[in-house]
């Protein structure tokens, strides 16, 4: 059975953020991830990780103004300096929190920016981030996101992600494969994960439709969990879903699949 990490940006939101670490541990999780740590000091978050014996699995590079709808700036040609500063900030947090990977969100392609310019900017920023992270022993992952939930998101399918990875040419750049997003964009989940296992360093889950917990939609998660074991996936699986009702009620799937 894969190792599951609670996504604290989407689970246990009935409680304040820093209280969610204990809630995740009480629910049987041993790892956590979330969108961003930057509203808190790294030392404060580290305290809650250690107090609850949790592994910090993942967070994202700074991604612009999230409250105003920005979803990353890595493909924005006029934000390169800001992106570089964000890499340094993320590294400073990761050194304290101990995570061995950081995710890069490509962002929504800006109006007036053609595809070639967006791609060139994205590749350059990924090269910069991959090199900086490699120097401190941290892997860089990038995530393809469906364009139904985020219209215009630049990186939106596995083939595109693999092509970008090849053009970057860094041994320190990997894919974050989100099962929910890729079910919407392309399907063929089991074969894709098996074929590109060496390029995938992190997986996230939610069911479809609705982006709720496993068992609420069309995806056969019992099969996929067994499949991940059979192909030898060694990474974490982040539980990045919106509970259908409450977080606690929605966690029955963990016991159903003998995950805790």
UniProtKB/TrEMBL annotation:
InterPro entries assigned to the protein according to its UniProt record, in alphabetical order: HPT_OtnI_isomerases, Hydroxypyruvate_isomerase, HyI-like, Sugar_Epim/Isomerase, Xyl_isomerase-like_sf, Xyl_isomerase-like_TIM-brl
Statement: the UniProt record of this protein carries the keyword DNA repair: no
Gene Ontology molecular function: any one: hydroxypyruvate isomerase activity
Enzyme class: isomerase
SUPFAM superfamilies reported for this sequence: Xylose isomerase-like
EC number(s) reported in the record: 5.3.1.22
UniProt similarity note: Belongs to the hyi family.
Name under which the protein is recorded: Hydroxypyruvate isomerase
Organism from which the protein derives: Pseudomonas helleri
Taxonomic placement: Bacteria, Pseudomonadati, Pseudomonadota, Gammaproteobacteria, Pseudomonadales
């Amino acid at each position: 059975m894969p190792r599951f990490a609670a996504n604290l940006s989407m689970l246990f939101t009935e409680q304040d953020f820093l209280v969610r670490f204990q809630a995740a541990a009480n629910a049987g999780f041993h790892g956590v991830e979330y969108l961003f740590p930057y509203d808190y000091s790294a030392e404060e978050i580290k305290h809650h990780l250690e107090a609850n014996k949790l592994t910090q699995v993942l967070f994202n590079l700074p991604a612009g103004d999230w409250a105003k709808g920005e979803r990353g700036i890595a493909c924005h040609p006029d934000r390169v300096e800001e992106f570089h500063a964000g890499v340094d900030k993320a590294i400073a947090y990761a050194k304290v929190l101990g995570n061995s990977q950081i995710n890069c969100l490509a962002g929504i392609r800006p109006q007036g920016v053609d595809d070639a310019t967006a791609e060139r900017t994205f590749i350059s920023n990924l090269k910069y981030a991959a090199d900086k992270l490699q120097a401190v022993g941290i892997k860089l992952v990038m995530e393809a996101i469906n364009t139904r939930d985020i219209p215009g998101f630049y990186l939106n399918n596995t083939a595109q992600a693999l092509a970008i990875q090849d053009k970057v040419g860094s041994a320190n750049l990997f894919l974050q494969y989100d099962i929910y997003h890729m079910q919407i964009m392309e399907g063929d989940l089991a074969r894709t994960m098996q074929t590109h296992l060496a390029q995938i360093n992190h997986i996230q889950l939610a069911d479809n439709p609705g982006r709720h917990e496993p068992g609420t939609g069309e995806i056969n998660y019992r099969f996929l969990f067994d499949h991940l074991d059979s192909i030898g996936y060694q990474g974490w699986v982040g539980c990045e879903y919106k509970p259908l009702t409450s977080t606690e009620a929605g966690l029955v799937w963990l016991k159903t699949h003998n995950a805790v």
